[in-house]
Amino acid sequence: MSFPLRPLGRSALQVSPLCFGGNVFGWTADEAMSFSLLDAWLDAGMNFVDTADVYSRWVPGHAGGESETIIGNWLRKNAGRRDRLVLATKVGKDMGDGRVGLHPRYIRQAVDASLKRLQTDYIDLYQSHDDDPDIPFEDVMGTFSDLIREGKVRAVGASNYSAGRLAAALECSEKHRLARYESLQPLYNLYDRAVFEKELQPLCEQHGVGVINFYALAAGFLAGKYRTEADVNKSARGPKTVGLYLNPRGLRILGALDAVAARLNASQSEVAIAWLLTRKAIAAPIASASNLAQLQSLVRAASLVLDDEALKTLDAASAE
Protein backbone atom coordinates (compact mmCIF):
# COMPACT_ATOMS: atom_id res chain seq x y z
CA MET A 1 0.00 0.00 0.00
CA SER A 2 1.17 3.53 -0.64
CA PHE A 3 -0.20 6.94 0.27
CA PRO A 4 0.45 10.28 -1.45
CA LEU A 5 3.03 12.21 0.52
CA ARG A 6 2.32 15.74 1.69
CA PRO A 7 4.70 18.69 2.04
CA LEU A 8 5.44 19.70 5.61
CA GLY A 9 5.25 23.47 5.70
CA ARG A 10 7.67 25.02 3.24
CA SER A 11 10.40 22.51 4.05
CA ALA A 12 11.72 19.81 1.75
CA LEU A 13 10.15 17.12 3.97
CA GLN A 14 7.44 14.98 2.41
CA VAL A 15 5.34 13.11 4.94
CA SER A 16 2.65 10.45 4.98
CA PRO A 17 -0.94 11.49 5.85
CA LEU A 18 -0.53 10.11 9.37
CA CYS A 19 2.32 10.41 11.86
CA PHE A 20 3.00 7.62 14.33
CA GLY A 21 3.23 8.87 17.91
CA GLY A 22 6.31 7.32 19.47
CA ASN A 23 5.32 8.10 23.05
CA VAL A 24 4.21 4.47 23.37
CA PHE A 25 7.68 3.04 22.68
CA GLY A 26 9.03 1.74 25.98
CA TRP A 27 5.78 2.59 27.75
CA THR A 28 2.72 0.68 26.51
CA ALA A 29 4.76 -1.12 23.84
CA ASP A 30 7.95 -2.96 24.80
CA GLU A 31 10.95 -3.04 22.48
CA ALA A 32 9.88 -6.14 20.57
CA MET A 33 6.41 -4.76 19.92
CA SER A 34 7.85 -1.34 19.09
CA PHE A 35 10.06 -2.94 16.43
CA SER A 36 7.02 -4.72 14.96
CA LEU A 37 5.04 -1.47 14.94
CA LEU A 38 7.82 0.43 13.15
CA ASP A 39 8.19 -2.36 10.58
CA ALA A 40 4.45 -2.46 9.96
CA TRP A 41 4.21 1.35 9.72
CA LEU A 42 6.73 1.54 6.90
CA ASP A 43 5.36 -1.59 5.24
CA ALA A 44 1.91 0.07 5.22
CA GLY A 45 3.26 2.99 3.19
CA MET A 46 3.65 5.45 6.05
CA ASN A 47 6.96 7.24 6.70
CA PHE A 48 6.45 9.72 9.54
CA VAL A 49 7.31 9.00 13.21
CA ASP A 50 7.31 11.53 16.07
CA THR A 51 8.99 11.18 19.44
CA ALA A 52 10.68 13.37 22.08
CA ASP A 53 13.69 13.21 24.36
CA VAL A 54 11.41 13.27 27.42
CA TYR A 55 9.43 10.14 26.41
CA SER A 56 8.72 8.35 28.72
CA ARG A 57 10.02 10.09 31.82
CA TRP A 58 6.56 10.01 33.43
CA VAL A 59 6.78 6.23 33.88
CA PRO A 60 8.13 5.16 37.29
CA GLY A 61 11.76 4.14 36.91
CA HIS A 62 12.20 5.90 33.55
CA ALA A 63 14.59 8.81 33.06
CA GLY A 64 13.54 9.97 29.59
CA GLY A 65 15.06 8.89 26.31
CA GLU A 66 13.44 5.45 26.34
CA SER A 67 11.45 6.02 23.14
CA GLU A 68 14.43 7.46 21.24
CA THR A 69 16.60 4.57 22.42
CA ILE A 70 14.17 2.00 21.07
CA ILE A 71 13.92 3.80 17.74
CA GLY A 72 17.72 3.93 17.62
CA ASN A 73 17.97 0.21 18.26
CA TRP A 74 15.46 -0.38 15.47
CA LEU A 75 17.45 1.87 13.11
CA ARG A 76 20.65 -0.01 13.91
CA LYS A 77 18.88 -3.24 12.98
CA ASN A 78 17.28 -1.67 9.88
CA ALA A 79 19.97 0.72 8.65
CA GLY A 80 18.75 0.49 5.08
CA ARG A 81 15.37 1.95 6.03
CA ARG A 82 16.62 5.24 7.49
CA ASP A 83 16.15 7.13 4.22
CA ARG A 84 12.51 6.02 4.10
CA LEU A 85 11.78 7.45 7.53
CA VAL A 86 10.89 11.05 8.37
CA LEU A 87 11.98 11.14 11.99
CA ALA A 88 10.82 13.90 14.33
CA THR A 89 11.86 14.50 17.92
CA LYS A 90 11.68 17.35 20.41
CA VAL A 91 13.67 19.34 22.95
CA GLY A 92 12.68 21.53 25.88
CA LYS A 93 10.63 19.51 28.37
CA ASP A 94 12.15 18.98 31.78
CA MET A 95 14.64 16.08 31.69
CA GLY A 96 15.78 16.66 35.28
CA ASP A 97 19.05 18.02 36.63
CA GLY A 98 18.41 21.43 35.08
CA ARG A 99 18.06 20.01 31.56
CA VAL A 100 15.09 22.02 30.35
CA GLY A 101 14.21 24.90 28.05
CA LEU A 102 15.66 26.34 24.87
CA HIS A 103 18.93 27.97 25.86
CA PRO A 104 21.32 27.60 22.89
CA ARG A 105 23.86 25.70 24.97
CA TYR A 106 21.23 23.23 26.14
CA ILE A 107 19.73 22.77 22.66
CA ARG A 108 23.19 21.74 21.44
CA GLN A 109 23.61 19.28 24.30
CA ALA A 110 20.13 17.88 23.79
CA VAL A 111 20.39 17.40 20.03
CA ASP A 112 23.65 15.48 20.41
CA ALA A 113 22.07 13.31 23.10
CA SER A 114 19.06 12.61 20.87
CA LEU A 115 21.26 11.78 17.89
CA LYS A 116 23.22 9.33 20.03
CA ARG A 117 20.10 7.62 21.35
CA LEU A 118 18.53 7.54 17.89
CA GLN A 119 21.76 6.17 16.38
CA THR A 120 21.46 8.44 13.36
CA ASP A 121 23.47 11.32 11.87
CA TYR A 122 20.50 13.63 11.40
CA ILE A 123 17.01 14.43 12.66
CA ASP A 124 14.48 15.27 9.97
CA LEU A 125 12.28 17.49 12.14
CA TYR A 126 13.59 18.94 15.41
CA GLN A 127 10.91 20.63 17.49
CA SER A 128 10.71 22.98 20.44
CA HIS A 129 8.55 20.91 22.78
CA ASP A 130 7.49 24.02 24.70
CA ASP A 131 7.88 27.74 24.29
CA ASP A 132 10.67 29.25 26.40
CA PRO A 133 9.86 32.94 26.93
CA ASP A 134 13.13 33.47 28.81
CA ILE A 135 15.24 32.96 25.68
CA PRO A 136 15.09 35.49 22.80
CA PHE A 137 13.80 34.05 19.54
CA GLU A 138 16.97 35.26 17.81
CA ASP A 139 18.99 32.90 20.01
CA VAL A 140 16.65 29.94 19.62
CA MET A 141 16.18 30.22 15.86
CA GLY A 142 19.85 31.13 15.38
CA THR A 143 20.85 27.89 17.10
CA PHE A 144 18.41 25.90 14.98
CA SER A 145 19.85 27.58 11.86
CA ASP A 146 23.33 26.46 12.90
CA LEU A 147 22.13 22.88 13.42
CA ILE A 148 20.62 22.85 9.94
CA ARG A 149 23.84 24.19 8.40
CA GLU A 150 25.79 21.51 10.25
CA GLY A 151 23.52 18.78 8.86
CA LYS A 152 22.30 17.60 12.24
CA VAL A 153 18.75 18.77 11.56
CA ARG A 154 16.80 19.14 8.30
CA ALA A 155 13.90 21.33 9.50
CA VAL A 156 12.51 22.70 12.75
CA GLY A 157 9.04 22.88 14.25
CA ALA A 158 7.19 24.10 17.33
CA SER A 159 4.90 22.37 19.79
CA ASN A 160 2.53 23.89 22.36
CA TYR A 161 3.00 27.48 21.12
CA SER A 162 0.29 30.12 21.39
CA ALA A 163 -0.70 31.98 18.25
CA GLY A 164 0.95 35.15 19.49
CA ARG A 165 4.25 33.50 20.25
CA LEU A 166 4.28 31.50 17.02
CA ALA A 167 3.64 34.69 15.06
CA ALA A 168 6.52 36.40 16.87
CA ALA A 169 8.85 33.48 16.15
CA LEU A 170 7.97 33.52 12.45
CA GLU A 171 8.49 37.28 12.31
CA CYS A 172 11.91 36.94 13.95
CA SER A 173 12.98 34.27 11.47
CA GLU A 174 11.94 36.39 8.50
CA LYS A 175 13.52 39.58 9.86
CA HIS A 176 16.87 37.98 10.66
CA ARG A 177 16.85 35.43 7.80
CA LEU A 178 16.97 32.50 10.20
CA ALA A 179 15.45 29.03 10.03
CA ARG A 180 11.73 29.17 10.72
CA TYR A 181 9.25 26.84 12.32
CA GLU A 182 7.95 24.76 9.42
CA SER A 183 5.47 22.83 11.54
CA LEU A 184 3.27 23.27 14.57
CA GLN A 185 2.20 20.50 16.91
CA PRO A 186 -0.98 21.70 18.69
CA LEU A 187 -3.77 19.97 20.55
CA TYR A 188 -6.54 19.33 18.01
CA ASN A 189 -9.22 16.68 17.57
CA LEU A 190 -12.97 16.37 17.11
CA TYR A 191 -13.50 17.49 20.71
CA ASP A 192 -10.68 20.02 21.15
CA ARG A 193 -11.44 22.41 18.30
CA ALA A 194 -11.94 25.96 19.52
CA VAL A 195 -8.44 27.24 20.29
CA PHE A 196 -6.80 25.81 17.19
CA GLU A 197 -9.52 26.78 14.74
CA LYS A 198 -9.93 30.33 16.05
CA GLU A 199 -6.33 31.35 16.68
CA LEU A 200 -3.74 28.96 15.28
CA GLN A 201 -5.28 27.68 12.06
CA PRO A 202 -5.51 31.08 10.33
CA LEU A 203 -1.90 31.84 11.26
CA CYS A 204 -0.62 28.48 10.01
CA GLU A 205 -2.52 28.82 6.74
CA GLN A 206 -1.26 32.37 6.21
CA HIS A 207 2.37 31.40 6.72
CA GLY A 208 2.35 27.92 5.21
CA VAL A 209 3.12 26.14 8.49
CA GLY A 210 2.31 22.42 8.43
CA VAL A 211 0.16 21.18 11.31
CA ILE A 212 0.87 17.81 12.93
CA ASN A 213 -1.65 17.80 15.75
CA PHE A 214 -1.35 15.60 18.81
CA TYR A 215 -4.13 13.82 20.76
CA ALA A 216 -5.88 12.99 17.49
CA LEU A 217 -8.06 10.56 19.44
CA ALA A 218 -8.22 12.64 22.64
CA ALA A 219 -6.06 10.06 24.47
CA GLY A 220 -8.40 7.26 23.39
CA PHE A 221 -11.69 8.94 24.29
CA LEU A 222 -12.74 9.28 20.63
CA ALA A 223 -12.16 5.55 20.15
CA GLY A 224 -15.17 5.01 22.42
CA LYS A 225 -13.18 3.53 25.30
CA TYR A 226 -14.53 5.83 27.99
CA ARG A 227 -18.28 6.22 28.37
CA THR A 228 -18.79 6.00 32.13
CA GLU A 229 -16.78 6.67 35.27
CA ALA A 230 -16.26 2.91 35.57
CA ASP A 231 -14.23 2.96 32.34
CA VAL A 232 -11.54 5.24 33.77
CA ASN A 233 -9.01 2.56 34.62
CA LYS A 234 -9.16 0.67 31.35
CA SER A 235 -5.76 1.99 30.31
CA ALA A 236 -2.81 4.06 31.51
CA ARG A 237 -4.32 7.13 29.88
CA GLY A 238 -7.80 6.73 31.31
CA PRO A 239 -7.57 8.99 34.35
CA LYS A 240 -6.33 11.87 32.17
CA THR A 241 -9.36 11.81 29.89
CA VAL A 242 -12.39 11.62 32.14
CA GLY A 243 -12.40 15.12 33.56
CA LEU A 244 -11.82 16.64 30.15
CA TYR A 245 -14.08 14.63 27.89
CA LEU A 246 -16.63 12.61 29.84
CA ASN A 247 -19.40 15.21 29.80
CA PRO A 248 -22.59 15.85 27.79
CA ARG A 249 -20.73 17.30 24.79
CA GLY A 250 -18.23 14.45 24.79
CA LEU A 251 -20.98 11.86 24.91
CA ARG A 252 -22.79 13.68 22.08
CA ILE A 253 -19.65 13.40 19.95
CA LEU A 254 -19.35 9.70 20.77
CA GLY A 255 -22.95 9.22 19.68
CA ALA A 256 -22.19 10.85 16.33
CA LEU A 257 -19.08 8.71 15.91
CA ASP A 258 -21.14 5.60 16.71
CA ALA A 259 -23.70 6.49 14.05
CA VAL A 260 -21.18 7.34 11.32
CA ALA A 261 -18.99 4.34 12.11
CA ALA A 262 -21.95 1.95 11.90
CA ARG A 263 -23.10 3.40 8.57
CA LEU A 264 -19.62 3.30 7.00
CA ASN A 265 -18.59 -0.04 8.52
CA ALA A 266 -15.64 1.52 10.32
CA SER A 267 -14.54 2.01 13.91
CA GLN A 268 -15.08 5.18 15.90
CA SER A 269 -11.35 5.91 15.97
CA GLU A 270 -11.10 5.49 12.20
CA VAL A 271 -13.91 7.99 11.70
CA ALA A 272 -12.34 10.49 14.14
CA ILE A 273 -9.02 10.36 12.30
CA ALA A 274 -10.64 10.46 8.87
CA TRP A 275 -12.41 13.66 9.99
CA LEU A 276 -9.05 15.24 10.79
CA LEU A 277 -7.78 14.31 7.35
CA THR A 278 -10.56 16.42 5.80
CA ARG A 279 -9.29 19.57 7.57
CA LYS A 280 -7.27 21.56 5.04
CA ALA A 281 -4.81 22.98 7.59
CA ILE A 282 -3.69 19.55 8.77
CA ALA A 283 -0.58 17.97 7.25
CA ALA A 284 -0.52 14.78 9.32
CA PRO A 285 -2.37 14.00 12.54
CA ILE A 286 -0.30 12.17 15.16
CA ALA A 287 -1.81 8.96 16.50
CA SER A 288 -0.37 6.09 18.51
CA ALA A 289 -0.85 2.33 18.57
CA SER A 290 0.32 -0.16 21.15
CA ASN A 291 -0.34 -3.26 19.06
CA LEU A 292 -0.58 -4.26 15.40
CA ALA A 293 -4.37 -4.37 15.34
CA GLN A 294 -4.52 -0.73 16.44
CA LEU A 295 -1.90 0.19 13.84
CA GLN A 296 -3.88 -1.43 11.05
CA SER A 297 -6.90 0.55 12.15
CA LEU A 298 -4.87 3.76 11.75
CA VAL A 299 -3.92 2.71 8.24
CA ARG A 300 -7.56 2.03 7.38
CA ALA A 301 -8.48 5.48 8.68
CA ALA A 302 -6.13 7.07 6.16
CA SER A 303 -8.18 5.50 3.36
CA LEU A 304 -11.64 6.14 4.82
CA VAL A 305 -13.73 8.65 2.87
CA LEU A 306 -16.33 10.60 4.84
CA ASP A 307 -19.32 11.75 2.82
CA ASP A 308 -21.20 15.01 3.33
CA GLU A 309 -23.73 13.38 5.64
CA ALA A 310 -20.98 12.06 7.89
CA LEU A 311 -19.21 15.43 8.03
CA LYS A 312 -22.43 17.27 8.87
CA THR A 313 -23.22 14.78 11.65
CA LEU A 314 -19.76 15.11 13.19
CA ASP A 315 -19.57 18.89 12.88
CA ALA A 316 -23.01 19.36 14.45
CA ALA A 317 -22.18 17.09 17.40
CA SER A 318 -18.79 18.70 18.05
CA ALA A 319 -19.90 22.33 17.75
CA GLU A 320 -18.83 24.33 20.81
TrEMBL record:
One Gene Ontology term of the molecular function aspect: oxidoreductase activity
Taxonomic lineage of the native organism: Bacteria, Pseudomonadati, Pseudomonadota, Betaproteobacteria, Burkholderiales
Keyword Cell membrane listed: no
UniProt KW keywords: Oxidoreductase
InterPro entries for this protein: AKR, AKR_Detox_Biosynth, NAD(P)_OxRdtase_dom_sf, NADP_OxRdtase_dom
UniProt cross-references to SUPFAM superfamilies, sorted A to Z: NAD(P)-linked oxidoreductase (SSF51430)
Protein's recorded name: Aldo/keto reductase
Record's GO cellular component terms: cytosol
Domain NADP-dependent oxidoreductase: 17-317
